[in-house]
Amino acid sequence: MNHISTFLKGFAMGVANVIPGVSGGTIAFVTGIYERLINSIKSFDGTALKLIIGRNFKELWKYVDGNFLLALMLGVVVSIVSVAKVLGVVLQNDVYKIYVSALFFGLILASVWSVYKMVKKWSFAAIIGLLIGCAIAVALAFMPQAQESKSIAYLLICGVVAMCSMIIPGVSGSFVLLLMGNYKLIMIDSVNALRRGEMEALSVLIPVGVGAVAGMAILSRVLSWLFKRFHDIAVASITGFVAGSLLTIWPWKKEVVETFTSGDKIKEKVIDYDRYLPAMDNQFWVAVGIMLIGVALMIAVEVMGSKKKDS
């Protein structure tokens, strides 16, 4: 039963990655598996390498929490190849996009209180962490886009930052790449070029991949250390991140689109959002209803989790 629960949480993380502004890290955090995930990633270290060299795979599997990672990753993969693809099509419709964003807005809104309660003792430092986390998330939503760069050093930084943002709750990796000006270069031009068999795309993707692996290895250790030494401050800061990310996933926003050419095709990319207050029409009330469903779902998850702990 525990593995099924982990699978479903991974499934939700995969779905979240399709929604603009939502990160898998947010879902991991609000479903209570975040610290375990960070510690599991961190366990791929020198000890794990020694176990591989010694062919002690049974002990390696136990050391890296293999059952947990396998169930979680299966959920993510199944989600991406099934429901997430359907959502990708649904999100092409402006009205449905509002409804999907409303559902996740409700889920995250309700989760803020759940995350807030994870802080054992609210100190002055924890409150400052909360405010700083919220301020950074809000600032990211309004940050201007940088210029595109193929510099190897910059591509390495893009990989590090993108992976860090995927691990840190409340920040979308693709959104950060967009702010850094390299979303089109990495996620569109290079990926499409590689699919066409153009190996020069690797000059972009390899540095980004190296940076992503380095970012994951370093950040998982930093976060694990922070959770052990400064648990309440770390959780409070992430609570601020999650609360601030509500601005990014606000359902009522218009995309600011830039047109560009990729080979012989004309494509578009979203460079910013214009947020607005909606008219109180039927569409608005349907969205509010879906938002409340999201709130109810998160409350139900919390209640079931509490009962499981009590039992």
In short:
70% of the residues lie in helices and 7% in strands. It is mainly alpha-helical and 311 residues long. The protein has one domain (2-310).
Tell me what you see in this structure.
- The protein has a two-stranded antiparallel sheet with strand order 1-2.
- It has 15 helices and 2 strands.
- Helix content is 70%, strand content 7%.
- The longest helix has 29 residues.
- It has one domain.
- β1 and β2 form a beta hairpin.
- The chain is mostly helical and 311 residues long.
- α1 runs antiparallel to α2 and α8 runs antiparallel to α14.
- The model has no long low-confidence stretch (mean pLDDT 79).
Structural class: mainly alpha
> What does the overall shape look like?
globular
Name the beta content range: 5-15%
| Poorly predicted sequence stretches spanning 5 or more consecutive residues | none
**How many individual β-strands?**
2
Mean pLDDT: 79
Helical content class: over 70%
What is the gyration radius calculated from CA atoms? 20 Å
Order of helices and strands: HHHHHHHHHHHHHHEEH
Number of helices: 15
What is the number of independent domains?
Answer: 1
Strand order of the largest sheet: 1-2
